[in-house]
Specification:
Elements (H helix, E strand, L loop, with lengths): L1 H26 L4 E4 L2 E4 L4 E3 L3 E7 L4 E10 L2 E9 L8 E7 L11 E10 L4 E11 L5 E3 L12 E9 L4 E8 L6 E7 L6 E9 L6 E8 L4 E7 L5 E10 L12 E3 L4 E3 L13 E5 L5 E4 L12 E2 L2 E2 L11 E4 L5 H12 L20 E4 L10 E2 L6 E7 L5 E12 L8 E9 L1
Parallel strand pairs: 2-9, 25-26
Antiparallel strand pairs: 1-4, 2-3, 4-7, 5-6, 5-8, 8-9, 10-11, 11-14, 12-13, 12-15, 15-16, 17-29, 18-19, 18-20, 20-21, 21-25, 22-23, 24-27, 27-28, 28-29
Length: 426
């Protein structure tokens, strides 16, 4: 019987000892920190993959205080957040730290956030939330023209390239026709395009001097480019048609060009307005269609008739206009042709014609054969640009640039016509 009691005491002691061991093990169970690995975008000041630093902490003992310290390889750790969990959250604590709590700090060398826990029994726990910083490549606009000139309809095609490694989201277009930039259009991109070839047709609004293009990528990063709209110092008149001198029965209504108004006068309404005429058109019986300086047309004025009335101008009122046909192949002439075709002409001052001998001929004659083109012989295929210099009363000159488009020799030759565009300097 004595042995039985001894055995019972030993077994009870073993059970009690084992129970105490289990309690001690439970008390020493470490906390479990669960959190994602985070990134910090230095350009936008945002964290990822979530917008707030979040996670949860399981604590068997219970949390009394919790501290979060920002860790950077180039600085000492700094406290960014602390909390005292409520009674019901001491064993399972969910946290969410707003980015604004640390985004103002310099985070290019951030390595993580250290989590320090003070338990209710004064023991402690330390955990780590990993965080790395990255600086995304900024979006870019390339091949955007520095300036554009709208065509005669007010339109111009803007080409270029938008790119972003982060994916493009939006392209916006602005102009400043009211003195400040206002949005006129936008293109929304929904396919995460890394590049986008711009081909946007802009319609000019009166008084606009600049166009602004802004692109936005998927991080909200932006890039912009400015395009100048030069102020044109000329007026363009398109598709004018001038008749030769006409006949008594078919008087010309368009033999005289008034550059100041961009208008045409005929044999029946030119009298008294000769001082406004910059050049006249004429066609010989040999079927040579010509532009004439008014001052050099005195020998042919009798051929401009309004029924039985002959044009008899006062020679003193006639302008001594001069012409020069621009012959392709010379560098400076080619530059003018290139500017004409590219619609990049902004001024018709002498600087624009630099390197070209000033107009000196009193006539410019049409010959369809390009082999015959010269400083005073034009055609409509190769040498079709004519620099016209019109004298002003003060001794200065007004430059014009005529582009011959078609010459039709009529029957009779007096009704032959010239179709052209002409730039007239303001």
């Amino acid at each position: 019987m004595k042995n039985f009691y001894l055995i019972a005491i030993i077994v009870a002691g073993f059970i009690l000892l084992n129970s105490c061991k289990k309690d001690k093990t439970a008390a020493n169970t470490p906390d479990v920190l669960t959190a994602k690995d985070f990134t910090f975008n230095t350009a936008t000041g945002q964290t990822g993959p979530d917008t707030a630093l979040n996670g949860k902490l399981n604590s068997t003992i219970g949390i009394r205080l919790i501290y979060f310290y920002l860790m950077r390889s180039d600085k000492t750790d700094s406290l960014i957040y602390r909390d005292t969990p409520a009674q019901e959250n001491r064993n399972l604590y969910h946290f969410s730290i707003p980015t604004k709590s640390f985004s103002a700090a310099k985070l290019t060398k951030v390595t993580g956030v250290r989590v320090m826990v003070k338990h209710i029994d004064n023991s402690s726990f330390e955990g780590l939330i990993k965080m790395t910083a990255f600086t995304p490549t900024m979006p870019a606009l390339s091949d955007i023209p520095a300036s554009v000139l709208p065509d005669e309809t007010g339109k111009t095609l803007i080409k270029g390239k938008a790119s972003s490694e982060n994916g493009l989201k939006l392209i916006e277009f602005y102009d400043d026709y009211r003195g400040v930039f206002e949005k006129i259009d936008q293109i929304e991109l929904t396919k995460n395009e890394k590049t986008y070839e711009l081909s946007y047709q802009y319609t000019y609004r009166k008084n606009a001097g600049k166009i602004k293009i802004i692109i936005t990528d998927n991080f909200g990063l932006k890039a912009e480019s400015l395009i100048n709209i030069p102020i044109k110092s000329y007026v363009l008149y398109k598709d004018l048609t001038m008749m030769a001198h006409g006949t008594a029965s078919a008087p010309s209504v368009s033999s005289f060009f008034n550059g100041e108004a961009g208008s045409l006068l005929g044999s029946c309404n030119v009298s008294g307005q000769e001082q406004k005429v910059d050049f006249v058109t004429y066609c010989t019986t040999a079927m040579v269609f010509s532009l004439y300086s008014p001052a050099s047309a005195t020998t042919i004025t009798k051929n401009y008739k309004c029924n039985t009335q002959v044009w008899e101008p006062d020679p003193a009122s006639l302008k001594a206009t001069k012409f020069r046909v621009l012959i392709p192949g010379a560098a400076d002439a080619d530059r003018v042709y290139a500017a004409y075709h590219a619609n990049t002409i902004t001024a018709l001052d002498d600087q624009f014609f630099a390197g070209i001998t000033a107009p000196g001929s009193s006539t410019a004659k049409f010959d369809a054969a390009s082999a015959n083109q010269s400083a005073n012989v034009f055609n409509v295929t190769t040498a079709y640009l004519i620099w016209i210099r019109v004298p002003k009363p003060d001794g200065t000159f007004t430059n014009q640039l005529l582009s011959a488009k078609a010459v039709v020799i009529g029957n009779p030759v007096a009704v032959s016509t010239l179709k052209f565009d002409i730039f007239v300097s303001k």
